[in-house]
Amino acid sequence: MEETIFTKAVGNTAKIKVLEFLIEGRELDYSLSDIAEGSGIGRTTLFRIWNDFEKLNLVIQTRTIGNAKLFKLNNKNPFVKRLIELFDSLIINSLKEKEIEV
Q1: How many distinct structural domains can be found in the chain?
Q2: How wide is the angle at C-alpha 71 spanned by C-alphas 89 and 45, nearest 5°?
């Protein structure tokens, strides 16, 4: 998976990859399998770090479909709000720089 401006700025760990995936799709909810695949990490790695996301209230469970629990980013968490602001500012600045180059 190619490194993005966000991962270049804050790191390229499994947790950062999951956060980036959830921030990009912040309006949607995902199963853990979808999150692992979308983040480009293994399910085992996701299961190892997922408790931290829940304990820190970074994600919320939105619904259950069959045996699958679906989660989304907790947009009400102050830390998540700041991460979204950082992500959006990095992306917007990156796009502006690309426009200037063209």
Answers
A1: 1
A2: 85
Structure tokens at 96: 């502006």
Give the pTM.
Answer: 0.85
Structure tokens, 86: 């950082």
| CATH code at position 30 | 1.10.10.10
Cα separation, 57 vs 80, in Å, equals 9
pLDDT for 30 beyond 90: yes
Q: List the domain range (segments joined by +) for residue 79.
A: 5-101
Is residue 97 pLDDT above 70, yes or no?
no
Q: Please give the single-letter amino acid code of residue 101.
A: E
